[in-house]
Amino acid sequence: MLGMSSLPEPVTGRAGGTGLVLGEDGLARPVWAATDPLLRAYYDTEWGVPVRDERGLYERICLEGFQAGLSWATILRKRPAFRAAFADFDPDTVSGFGPADVDRLLADAGIVRHRGKIEAAVGNARATVALRAEGGLAELVWSFRPARTPRPRTADEVPTRSPESEALSRALRARGFRFVGPTTMHALMEAVGIVDTHLVGSHRRGSSGVWPEAPHGA
């Protein structure tokens, strides 16, 4: 879901001036995940964990699109309502949504009521179903995994886009997806483990198994 590029600008933390905060449990986290219990739990258990299934990736693409212009905490708090409104982000079901469903969703105070984003989520479901003929959404998204991952030591070193996120954005747009710009897709790639932008020194660095850390962080 959320990438570092979608987060509020961190400030220097207390763990050696790196932007990390040492929690009462002795674990180092970035400033954005250090205080709010919901964001902390998300950081500790979800952000950067590999997502390789169609439904999971479709959901995260949609939520990244809904997040544009808003805080991630807002989207995370509304996630249960989003899942209820969008049939647990089942692409087959959402692809059948029509104008009456869009009107229903626009009246749902539990989600972000933005017509363009709602219509994009429906269109993205249809595009997801169509992609099965090419091997599927997961295969396409993961094909843009880079040869190397960033190793940021401070928040300022975390990229907000990359050649791979730009290429993924183009590929998805060519297949009918919307709200999938390069910055949004970089955030997606961070959130689903395609790249690892956990700060060096964070207790989550290398935890995805996709990008294991070198000994001693070398």
Describe this structure in words.
The chain is globular. With 218 residues, the chain is mainly alpha-helical. Helix content is 43%, strand content 3%. It has helices spanning 37-45, 54-67, 72-85, 91-94, 99-106, 115-131, 137-142, 163-174, 182-191, and strands at residues 20-22, 28-30. The longest helix is centred in the middle third of the chain and has 17 residues, at 115-131. It has nine helices and two strands.
Q: Report the order of strands and helices.
A: EEHHHHHHHHH
List segments where confidence is low: pLDDT < 50 over at least 5 consecutive residues.
4-16
Overall outline: globular
Radius of gyration: 17 Å
Q: Structural class of the helix and strand makeup?
A: mainly alpha
The number of distinct β-strands equals: 2
Distance, first to last CA? 28 Å
Largest pleated sheet: 2 strands, antiparallel
Compute the average pLDDT.
91
Strand content: under 5%
What is the count of DSSP helices, taking H or I runs of 4+ residues? 9
Biggest sheet: strand arrangement: 1-2
Query: Percentage of helical residues?
Result: 40-55%
List the helices and strands and how they pair.
Layout: E1 20-22, E2 28-30, H1 37-45, H2 54-67, H3 72-85, H4 91-94, H5 99-106, H6 115-131, H7 137-142, H8 163-174, H9 182-191
Antiparallel strand pairs: 1-2
Helix pairs in contact: 2-6, 2-9, 8-9
Features:
single chain; 218 residues; mainly alpha; two-stranded antiparallel sheet; globular
Put the structure in a nutshell.
The chain is mainly α and about 220 residues long.
